[in-house]
Amino acid sequence: MSDVTQTNCPICGSQATEQIFFKALPSGDYEETIRYECIRCGEFDLDGFSEVYTAPSRDGYLGEMGSRKRADLSAWLREKTDQRERRGGDIGKIVKLENSFLTTYNPNDLRDAFEAATITRFHEKADRLLLALRNASKYVGQPIGVFASEQDNLAWQARAWAMNAQELKTIVNHLVENGLIAVDQSPSNSEQMHSIRLLGKGIERIEQQNPGNINSDQCFVAMWFNDEVLPVFNDALAPAIEKAGYKPFKINDKPPVDRVDAEIEKAIKASRFMVADLSKHRPSVYFEAGYARSQGIPVFFTCREEDFDELHFDIRQFHCFKWSPDNPGKIVDELNKMIVRECGRGPV
User: Fold this and answer.
1) For site-directed labelling of 214, which of 190, 245, 257, 342 has its Cα 20 to 30 A away?
2) Predicted pLDDT of residue 87
3) What is the pTM for the complete model shown?
């Protein structure tokens, strides 16, 4: 490893440190990698090749993008950093940085990560800030120094998916007006925000929206467990889920320790989202999908083409991916993109 040097983050332009090291490849070769620790984005790795695609002054995909998309990618990286820190472990280890290692030799990998990192709806940004406050609080009402310093403010801009300080203040004011948080002013300047406290109504909002699953790396797969349709799991569902950064889980993956229905409900509640394959129209799959939606968990539907026309009427309002037994893997890319668009890229 080289010495740690001061620099500007290639993603957001904030103050950062960089350190060059060499990452071992399966081929036995070594790849030059730059590890950044940014006050806004957190800690992440980029290899020397991908830096060409991030520097604003250079030609390349990210070099052409504006501040809005850079802020979104910064927020995505900050979430990955916070997730690693909550789960413990030495984040300096290479294995702990894989989740935010953006690209190897293929600039399209970086392009996919960049396009996945986007939240446009205001209420989602407000919910992200509430969730981050909950994760940072040891008790309800603990003051969190969101505006205590420039470094703190930049990190919290990323956690709220805000482009700048003004957007963060707008989100904060909205939450204050709705009684979800309280703001403490600076001791030295009564007109300047200093810290934020999460209130009881804010906790209720988090629980109602069920965003606790936003940190889950699991996808519950509901389907008919029969050889006729299992190829779609192996060739389409599992690859799409894993490519999005999540782990697919079927209820028959492990022996139950409780009633099967209780195990199913527990596994669904522990999942970030569900993929429900409606082939053969199994009543249990419809029930599990309905239960997931009642818990605020996103559900993505798939169905074998020969069963597609018989979809239940109350499902037809939702998009359903039609797959063919001759080529079930054809839906991988489209399903993957919808998962990432709706749920974000996962931590796996």
Assistant:
1) 257
2) 57
3) 0.63
